[in-house]
Amino acid sequence: PRIYTWAIFWLLIRWTLAYQAYQDSIPNGKKVPNPCRANQFWNGVGHQSPLGGGVNNAFGKDFLAAGKVWTVALCQKDSDGDGKTNGAELGDSACVWTVGAAPAMTTGITHPGVCEPIGSAICAGKNKWVECGVRTKLNCTVFYEPETTNLAVRLPETDVPAKESSYVCMKYELPQNGVYHMVAVEPIIGTQNVVNQMFLYGCSDMQNANIVVNNPYVCPLTPAVQCTELLAMWTVGAPGRCFPALAGFKIGTSGYRYVTLQVHWSNPELVTTLKDNSGMRLYYTPVLRQHDAGVLVTGQRDLQIPPGELDFNVVGSCTSACSTEILTGSIWLTSSTIRMHRIGIYQQVAHNRNGSLLRYLNGEAFSYINYTSRVYPQPIEMKPGDELKTSCFYRSDKRHKTTQYAEGTYHELCENHLIYYPKSNVRSLSCLQWGTLSSCELKQDIVRNCPYKTFFKANAAADILQTVDLIKQNCAADGTCRKECKGAVRTARTHPCLQGDIGRKIRKDSLKLTDSKEKYRAMLFYAELNSCSTPLVK
Known about the structure:
It contains nine helices and 27 strands. It is α+β, with helices and mostly antiparallel strands. It has four domains: 2-123, no CATH class; 141-290, Sandwich (Jelly Rolls); 294-443, Jelly Rolls; 452-529, no CATH class. Helix 6 (462-474) runs antiparallel to helix 7 (483-492).
């Protein structure tokens, strides 16, 4: 029920706020490293979850027993049993620290609730609750079918750029001796501390492309125009994925012949000596399933998350009108995976039909360092006309600038990836929104009475050319505010292409124009349009 879901959400928020207060109650409480992830902190120091909340670890239990204050007895105790006192681990070996004071040491801090080194003899049996990297070993029933085989799609040993966030891609040729269904994937982790995410894209039309396989290259957010169909993804903590028993991703002679592996690296310390050879292991079989599987992306692509927020909400929908357009029949949803980044804290996808809530497809607290996915016990039917409303929540109180949509680690996403079948019943790879504009609308030539794709072309519609010329004749591009410009701007802004979200979309897209003449027209037009920075007099 909705009330229960929101109660859980606000409880999680309270936990998050609580651990911040407790961080100030112990020395270096905000600098305790995550033993599983270099360059990241374990914010909920007294909890088994790095985010805080839930079950306490050994240090958390001792902290509670001490009345939630830093005492000499708590300082001298070795909560995690690794041979070091809590004070030594937190930079207060002499046990003299008081709240508000600077700790004696601020470097070399270790976790007082996790026995380290993890995996050492002294820590044997003491870290059973700690999940580093892959949570559990993947165990799919298809592994035991004699026809199943596998191949490794992974990078060769590759230099990791000394950049905070970077993407590397590599094209790979799949078996061409038959038709197969890919039925499972699992990660192959090379250098654990730098690999944040991996994506496997199917390449739909590579026959005439200049294909260079097995050669890593720095790539943009989407690896290639021919390789945009997301088949599998991995995030930190994921064991991999067994695909539904009735469906698989078709590969081979009549399926995907090539895939592109994309690896997202995070190197915030700008280390110059790192290398990585991560990738994915693909399991496939000639015993074809009943259906081909697909991935549908829903969510919101227009993100402007202000700094200083505790629970900023963004909503994006696969609208009823759009699902009617892209679905040729019912599809069955088998799993849901959240895609958000560092300040994402919660996501909920409501499945609505005829204006009424059917169910929530998910409703989980989110952590960037832990995999957040839900596999449905029984496939869920989605009909043409159904709405999927994705609500994403963010905590930006540590940010000082607005966070925008992009794939970089310190940008944000609001997406949910749904595996479904049959693929043949869906005409599009995504059903989402940019602001209030649906992805279906944006595929049309005219959106809300605006031919937005041709706004800056030389052969644009006559009314657009007249509007652009009106601004050109009355406004200056050098920042001078002419008196006659204000009236011209009033008139120009009545044009559909300069109103609402479609007006914002045209302006944002103008920054990515590749034609030099169109880009010049756009830059000149907006300089003239905004030459009078003072409010227009009515």
